[in-house]
């Protein structure tokens, strides 16, 4: 007596599942479904078959999804999803999925540089946001939503940090002029110059004839830059050179002089001046961690020291025949140094200050008065030292 249809259908499902997941053959099962003369199964076998059918149906719905069991049987038990060709394509995904991939594509086009990194982070943030919406609203997959939410948070933090770094850094007009004339040509960024300005002690106003630093009394505990005005540097009452705008008052003391030592020269204002003063030790500690800034300061201060040495050498060479009085202009390096022979007081600080007052800011008037004072002594009174 052959098997009826009610028994054959569960058996076929059970055997197909066994063939699919355990790679069993019909000979291993020991059943011949095509034989019409097979004997009926006992009642215990029917009960076992019914339980196996329920288990197989559950397994089929879990692992096979929407695939028909006949497709699985035709695959020869080679494994789940191993079909010959995709005959039925799924419909196009939701617009959130498409937008997310569009922004991922745009992120791959990011250029180099800091602005390229900012562009990359922004596009990744937008793309992952659309993936979050797609996972939450359309796919209803919590893990998809959670992972992309984490990616959004990470990229938002990066965007905030980059925008903070790219924020515009503004200075006062005086400090802006210092940055543009001294530090910007050496490729110092505004953020680096901001770190230098944070070491500033104060901006001191120095009145006319006020002594800023006195030799062997004032300690070398700062670095001073003239923002406006001019000061004369002297030693033992003898003028050495003039420090004008955007020049350092104590650049020679920067190299190899500790803060517990004293100035070997005096600095006196020959007009109302403003001086930017840094904490010397704090500034050195700040630039010590940045080799680029350290090299920049060594270059700027070293160049300043060289200029001062050239001016001092010119002054000393002129003292052989008289006193230096014509070294008051900003561009004194490009003009001959005039030396006046008459008068012991002509080279003193007081004489230089008086001549500065009489001449004002007009260098031509100053030189004209010097020439008039020297006419009475004959043509030998004025001698161009470096001519």
Layout of secondary structure:
Layout: H1 5-22, H2 26-29, H3 43-64, H4 69-74, H5 95-107, H6 114-138, H7 142-165, H8 173-183, H9 190-197, E1 200-206, E2 211-213, E3 222-228, E4 231-235, E5 238-243, E6 266-269, E7 273-279, H10 280-288, H11 291-318, E8 323-324, E9 338-340, H12 349-359, H13 363-375, E10 382-384
Antiparallel strand pairs: 1-7, 2-6, 3-7, 4-5, 4-6, 8-9, 9-10
Helix pairs in contact: 1-3, 5-6, 6-7, 12-13
Notes on the structure:
- This protein has helices spanning 5-22, 26-29, 43-64, 69-74, 95-107, 114-138, 142-165, 173-183, 190-197, 280-288, 291-318, 349-359, 363-375; strands spanning 200-206, 211-213, 222-228, 231-235, 238-243, 266-269, 273-279, 323-324, 338-340, 382-384.
- The chain starts with a helix and ends with a strand.
- The strands form three sheets. A four-stranded antiparallel sheet has the order 2-6-4-5.
- Residues 23-49, 59-67, 321-347 and 359-387 have low confidence and may be disordered.
- The radius of gyration is 45 Å and the shape is rod-shaped.
- By secondary structure, it is of the alpha+beta class.
- The longest helix has 28 residues, at 291-318.
- The protein contains 13 helices and ten strands.
- Helix 1 (5-22) packs across helix 3, helix 5 runs antiparallel to helix 6 (114-138) and helix 12 (349-359) crosses helix 13.
């Amino acid at each position: 007596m052959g098997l009826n249809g009610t028994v054959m259908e569960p058996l076929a499902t059970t055997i197909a599942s066994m063939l699919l997941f355990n790679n069993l053959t019909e000979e291993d099962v020991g059943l011949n479904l095509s034989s019409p003369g097979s004997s009926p199964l006992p009642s215990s076998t029917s009960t076992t078959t019914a339980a196996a059918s329920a288990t197989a149906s559950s397994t089929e719905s879990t692992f096979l999804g929407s695939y028909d069991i006949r497709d699985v049987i035709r695959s020869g038990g080679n494994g789940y999803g191993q079909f010959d060709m995709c005959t039925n394509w799924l419909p196009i995904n939701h617009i959130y999925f498409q937008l997310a991939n569009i922004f991922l594509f745009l992120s791959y086009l990011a250029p180099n540089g800091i602005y390229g990194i900012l562009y990359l982070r922004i596009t990744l943030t937008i793309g992952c946001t659309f993936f979050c919406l797609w996972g939450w609203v359309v796919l209803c997959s919590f893990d998809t939503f959670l992972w992309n939410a984490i990616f959004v948070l990470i990229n938002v933090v990066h965007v905030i940090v980059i925008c903070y770094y790219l924020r515009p850094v503004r200075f006062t007009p005086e400090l802006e002029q210092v940055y543009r004339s001294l530090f910007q040509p050496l490729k110092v960024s505004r953020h680096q110059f901001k770190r230098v300005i944070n070491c500033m002690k104060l901006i001191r106003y120095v009145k006319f004839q006020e002594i800023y630093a006195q030799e062997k009394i004032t300690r070398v505990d700062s670095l001073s830059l003239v923002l406006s005005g001019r000061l004369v540097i002297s030693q033992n009452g003898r003028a050495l050179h003039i420090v004008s705008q955007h020049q350092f008052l104590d650049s020679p003391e920067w190299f190899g002089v500790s803060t517990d030592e004293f100035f070997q020269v005096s600095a006196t204002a020959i007009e109302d001046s403003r001086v930017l003063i840094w904490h010397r030790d704090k500034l050195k500690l700040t630039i010590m961690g940045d080799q680029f800034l350290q090299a920049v300061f060594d270059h700027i201060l070293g160049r300043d020291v060289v200029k001062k040495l050239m001016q001092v050498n010119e002054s000393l060479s002129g003292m052989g025949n008289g006193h230096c009085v014509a070294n008051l202009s900003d561009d004194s390096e490009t003009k001959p140094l005039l030396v006046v022979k008459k008068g012991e007081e002509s080279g003193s600080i007081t004489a230089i200050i008086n001549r500065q007052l009489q001449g004002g800011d007009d260098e031509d008037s100053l030189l004209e008065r010097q020439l008039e004072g020297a006419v009475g002594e004959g043509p030998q009174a004025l001698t161009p030292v470096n001519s």
